[in-house]
Amino acid sequence: MDYVLIAELAISGVFVGLMYGLVSLGIVLIYKTSGLVNLAQGALAMTGAYVTWAITAGLGAPMWLAIIVAIVVLFGLGLAVERVALRRMIGQPVIMTIMLTLGIEIMLRGLMPGVFGAAVKRLDIGIPQAPIFIGEMLINRATLIGGLIALGLIVVSLVFFNSRYGIEMRAVADDQTASWSVGIRVERAIAIAWGLGAATATSAGILWGATQGVDWSLSLLLIKALAIAILGGLDSIPGVLLAGLIVGVAESLATGIIDPMVGAGTRDIVASVIILMTLLLKPHGLFGREHIERV
Fold this sequence. Notes:
Blueprint: H1 3-34, H2 41-59, H3 63-86, H4 94-116, E1 132-134, E2 137-139, H5 141-160, H6 164-174, H7 176-181, H8 186-212, H9 221-232, H10 237-262, H11 266-281
Antiparallel strand pairs: 1-2
């Protein structure tokens, strides 16, 4: 057994998992505030990457400015989605609201390539392409730096949700009526959660766009993000970290070890298997809260 290869795959999987986790973070942020699973997160990541590319390629703006503008634009888009579409669904069955987010995902997945073209766009955010060697192991520099940035943003979100305003947002998810009674502006809290979810998706989309290029396939990050959110617990930010590592390492090992034996395609199966097994064996995930209703 080639232990160097296994170590290399595992280390690469750690940083890839952290980048997946950044996409999943937006799902958790929105669920922690509104109790709603956002199925548009993959398309929001893709849209953020397209907007960043358009600002640099079309307007000639420097990359640092394009990233800031893209995050602000997608934050605004998140606010608009909540205000224009989701707020109208108040009082409707939850499944209808979830289907609405899926509709947004499908619409953006077709709209962005239709507007900007389906060809893969190169997004250079200044990360050197030369690999890093640790002994005999080869580490992708873009994945390493992207994973560390993702880790930093996840930690910042964890700190935010333990601040006063973050606690208010969590209170909204627990009981909106009680939150109203103590003066918390429920609609604003939910809208900000959607804005933050879109902003984190944009950050992830930019990192992934710099790694693999910008095209419609970035929206497929939704499956990885859902696997991490479900495994870690839909309302747990620490769960995003651990589940991201599990999904990333499992996917990397499957790709490097099982693919040569069966051909290819295990990368796309891992996330689906994790979703299925988690729902069957531990529906609330590793750190999710179990909600018990008394009837």
